[in-house]
Amino acid sequence: MSENIKERIEKEIEDARNACDVSGSNSQECAAAWDAVEELQAEASHQRDKGTDRTSLETYCDNNPEADECRVYDT
């Protein structure tokens, strides 16, 4: 999962908690805020399933294939 979507999820969670604190846990605002969190989490899961989520090492090796950390040995 990219850092951007993780940050967005964390922000939406914070917003949802605030909405529930202000409007009450049974309010429409609270429910809508948590729905937004669920949608982002679903998108993050979809990205993982598609394989678009790359680790920082994979990204580094794509940009620096000659680096020692990126060597692949056939056995």
Layout of secondary structure:
Elements lengths: L2 H21 L4 H23 L5 H8 L12
Detailed description of the structure:
This protein is an all-alpha fold and 75 residues long. It has three helices and no strands. The radius of gyration is 19 Å and the shape is elongated. The model has no long low-confidence stretch (mean pLDDT 86).
Summarize the structure.
By secondary structure, the protein is mainly α. It has 3 helices and no strands.
Characteristics of this structure?
elongated, 3 helices, 69% helix
The helix content, as a percent range, equals: 55-70%
Number-wise, the strands total: 0
Average pLDDT number: 86
State the distance separating the first and last CA atoms: 31 Å
- Compute the number of helices: 3
Radius of gyration: 19 Å
The global form is elongated
Main beta sheet strand tally, sense and closure: none
User: Helix-strand pattern, N to C?
Assistant: HHH
Strand residue percentage = under 5%
Low-confidence stretches: none
User: Given the helix and strand composition, which structural class is it?
Assistant: mainly alpha
